[in-house]
Amino acid sequence: MTESSRGGAAPAVRLCDISKRFGAVQANRAVSLAVAPGTVHGLVGENGAGKSTLMAILYGYYHADEGHIEVDGQRVAIASSQQAIALGIGMVHQHFMLVDTLSALDNVMLGAEPAFFLSRAKRQVRQELEALMRDTGLTVRLDATVAELPVGELQRLEILKALYRGARILILDEPTAVLTPQETDQLFEVLRRLRARGTTILLITHKLREVMALCDAVTVMRAGAVIKTCAIGDTSPEDLAESMVGRKVNLGRAGGAAKPQSDTPVLKAEGLTVAGDAGSGVHLLGNASLALRPGEIVGVAGVSGNGQSELLEVLAGMRAPDAGTLHLAGRDFHAAAWLDPRTARDLKLAHVPEDRHALGMVLSFPAWETAALGYHEQAQYRAGPFGLGIDQRHLRAQTATMMEQFDVRPRNADLGSSKFSGGNQQKLILAREIGQHPAVLLVGQPTRGVDIGAIEFIHNQLRRLRDAGCAILLVSSELDEILALADRVVVMNAGRITGELAIDECSEKNLGLLMAASPTHDKTAAEAATAP
Ligand SMILES: Nc1ncnc2c1ncn2[C@@H]1O[C@H](COP(=O)(O)OP(=O)(O)OP(=O)(O)O)[C@@H](O)[C@H]1O
């Protein structure tokens, strides 16, 4: 049941020979795909394979150069997102399209046809939304402002908004990339309920376990073309991985723990504390202490939002703590005179931030500028009288080399940073930071939104850097990633470090116990987790 449908009905969506080119890049090549109504259809493929472009065409954001689209068996023209919505197509993007200062309810009403709401008082809209929430399990606090809502709830709001506007076909672009495992489970529950109500769901994801758990059928894309479409019962994660990448992929551990190359830490932080909102009594980071030695990868495990981001920001010099000290490469810093990012770079501390768009790059800059961002004042990049200018030729050549080494596609140093797919943006940032041969690398969510071939590559790069003597702090919400890479693991919970385990003591079970442990009972929790 991959091509046609349940009960012989026409496909909810049929894409026929869709092609789309951006300059020299052929993003979609004669793509044909049919999605049965009331099913979840996975769309997988390497970064840059053309998945988002294809869905943007279905949602009326881009126009196909060739090919056509059918919805419920009827050929349709979709020239804008408004037309897509009118046809019952909704899309939830990776980056939410919500207004921070407005309430959830106002966000649902914003941007919809005024005539649509003229007939409905706000109170009635609220009642209808509440009924929809009960039916679907999409619970959202309608009166909270968007700024107050956690990421999982924002995503539910986006889905609710799409459904309220009549979406029967829902496109989700990597919906779980930003979710905790618990939020992912909740989302899947909702999606199953929506499917049972007849909604057709197109799901872009890099997580093959999710495809196997949720989808009815899956399409694999590579280099803009469809490699295959099959029913979920006819494939496996290994088979999908091989179809995506064109070779076998190994994401497992490559051996036991590495021994640090010296017992003297290159970075030692003590008592790091960051207070939450005034009067809340909450600590975003509570008395956290940590040491990194050359030649080891220390994994930080924890449910997102438990102080990992603050830890990275403080150690990278992006924010000063309220209390604590830092010893880095022979220098000491105190809360009152904290490290700044430039000094951090001078001391050979590199940082791959969790939020690559906000902190890792300037989206409007070409790739060659992103490839030097933060390091552009180094003498090697300066040119002209008194070194006032930037040596663009050198930078472009260096970017071309980085792109080759890190397989950044397309290999175009002049392309705007925003024009690269998410995974390729990530590879460019990693290439920049690793290229500085750091003594310490802080890395947050290194493979978020990255395809499995690139995950394998990035993992190998991090191991190679570790083996060359770099001390790496790895924050990841993917336990698999921590288990595959780390030599020892610290667990964070409610801003505190609640335990530390050598990698050979780690399992999903005992890490999970520590992640859920009450920080006031640290010892008991740590003991419980390591008990046989
Ligand atoms: N607006 C654009 N201008 C130029 N090139 C673009 C544009 N949008 C996408 N591309 C290129 O088209 C190709 C397909 O990109 P797309 O974002 O569709 O891939 P994807 O499969 O969704 O990747 P990812 O998994 O990384 O999100 C890539 O090479 C990308 O760089």
Describe the structure.
With 532 residues, the protein is of the alpha/beta class. It is built from 19 helices and 22 strands. Strand 19, helix 16 and strand 20 (471-475) form a beta-alpha-beta unit. The longest helix is centred in the middle third of the chain and has 16 residues, at 181-196. Residues 1-6 and 521-532 have low confidence and may be disordered. Bound molecules: adenosine-5'-triphosphate. Adenosine-5'-triphosphate binds next to strand 2, helix 1 and helix 15. This is Heme ABC transporter ATP-binding protein.
How would you describe this structure in keywords?
binds adenosine-5'-triphosphate; six-stranded mixed sheet; Rossmann fold; disordered C terminus; transport; globular; alpha/beta; 2 domains; ABC_transporter-like_ATP-bd
Question: Care to give the gist of this entry?
Answer:
This protein folds into 2 domains: 240 residues, Rossmann fold, CATH 3.40.50; 178 residues, 3-Layer(aba) Sandwich (Rossmann fold). The protein contains 19 helices and 22 strands. Strand 7, helix 7 and strand 8 form a beta-alpha-beta unit.
